[in-house]
Write a structure and sequence with these properties.
The chain is built from twelve helices and nine strands. By secondary structure, the protein is α+β, with helices and mostly antiparallel strands. It folds into two domains: 103 residues, Roll (Nuclear Transport Factor 2, Chain: A), CATH 3.10.450; 155 residues, no CATH class. The strands form two sheets. A five-stranded mixed β-barrel has the order 5-6-7-9-8.
Length: 367
């Protein structure tokens, strides 16, 4: 039965709005008169509102933006991984000497040595009169604090007062981090004063290296009283071939000079193709590079002293610590170089020969 609509004022505009799907006006809802509104089933399925031209592109644009963000993110991750991998390879790859990872680990926990502090430590040593003044200033080595005071006292008495120390700078050494200073006792002899960090990172003077301590003394080796030892010396390539070392195609020759000009020069030999030659070539490669740059900023002159602070064309010394022995049949001044212990007068934690080769002991393994 049809419902009889109530007699109310006709609101045709309101009815048309509701049929068209427009929201009714806000306010009090009134009952509408007029024909019965069709039910949902009678109206059929609802029409889809046609999207505007711009809205039809919304979904593809969102997908495109998502792909772009994803691709950029993956590219960033990939580049970051490549960069990290490259840095790791640089740290782990062996360079011309100690693997960079070893050098990085050693330097990571070592504070920088200020030149003012280095000069203060050196002045403390040079002016010390008692062992207590230099405990903690010098590195523990073959020479004890009381022995160091005796040596310093003798040096001051025989050569004169030391000059104020001057800063040279860092030594480019495979043996480890080394900073160098310089002083002269009177007008007789100069000294290179090296400082190295201990296990805790505290910088100390290596007194053994400063006075070029040899074990046994260089004099005993030169005079033929002993036939083997550890020497700190200035080493240079030589063309002296004689006696059992007459063949320059089988052997290589190097002069070994003491800090004392009155002592004779020694000659050291090792076989071509030996592990000692492998290590020496790495040291020589770096040394030749320093010589090529000597006209720019050589750290020390040919006598071991500092430059004039500007420029110099004088070549720096090659300071090495070697283990040598005199074989049977050799002349008094001829020795075999068994091991390159250090490429400086400072001896590091490990032999440089072990660091730069496979550690099988060098010449003694290559005969």
């Amino acid at each position: 039965m049809d419902r009889i609509p109530q007699k109310t004022p006709a609101r045709s505009s309101s009815v048309s709005q509701r049929i068209a799907g427009s929201p009714p006006a806000l306010g009090k809802v009134e009952k509408m008169s007029g024909p019965r509104q069709p039910s949902v089933s009678e109206m059929g399925p609802p029409r889809r509102r046609r999207r505007s031209k711009g809205s039809s592109r919304g979904a593809p644009r969102k997908i495109l933006r998502l792909w772009i963000v994803t691709v950029v993110g993956l590219a960033g991750v990939t580049l970051s991984c490549l960069l990290l991998w490259t840095l790791m390879r640089q740290k782990l790859a062996p360079g011309p000497g100690i693997p960079q990872s070893v050098r990085d680990r050693e330097m990571a926990s070592i504070p920088t040595l200020a030149s003012e502090h280095a000069i203060h430590l050196t002045k403390t040593l040079l002016n010390a009169k008692t062992p207590e003044e230099i405990r903690g200033v010098i590195r523990s080595g073959a020479i004890t604090a009381p022995e160091a005071i005796e040596i310093l006292t003798s040096m001051r008495e025989e050569m004169g007062k030391p000059t104020p120390p001057t800063w040279i700078g860092s030594a480019n050494a495979f043996a480890g981090p080394i900073e160098l200073l310089y002083c002269r006792f009177g007008d007789i002899r100069h000294y290179i004063i090296p400082l190295t960090p201990d296990e805790t990172g505290r910088w100390q003077i290596d007194f053994d290296a400063m006075v070029r301590h040899c074990d046994p003394s260089f004099e005993l080796l030169a005079e033929g009283e002993v036939d083997r030892g550890l020497v700190r010396a200035v080493v240079k390539e030589s063309d002296y071939f004689n006696g059992p070392y007459s063949s320059d195609t089988e052997w290589r020759s190097f002069s070994i000079s003491s800090s004392s000009p009155e002592l004779p020069q020694l000659y050291g030999y090792f076989k071509r193709g030996s592990k000692v030659e492998l290590v020496m070539e790495q040291i020589l490669t770096r040394y030749r590079s320093q010589m090529n740059d000597a006209g720019i900023d050589a750290p020390v002159n040919s006598a071991g002293g500092p430059t004039d602070g500007t420029r110099t064309a004088v070549k720096p010394d090659m300071r090495l610590t070697l283990r040598i022995h005199r074989p049977a049949g050799a002349q008094k001044n001829q020795f075999r170089i068994d091991e390159i212990v250090s490429d400086e007068w400072v001896i590091g934690k490990s032999s440089v020969q072990n660091l730069l080769s496979d550690g099988n002991g060098g010449e003694s393994q290559a005969n």
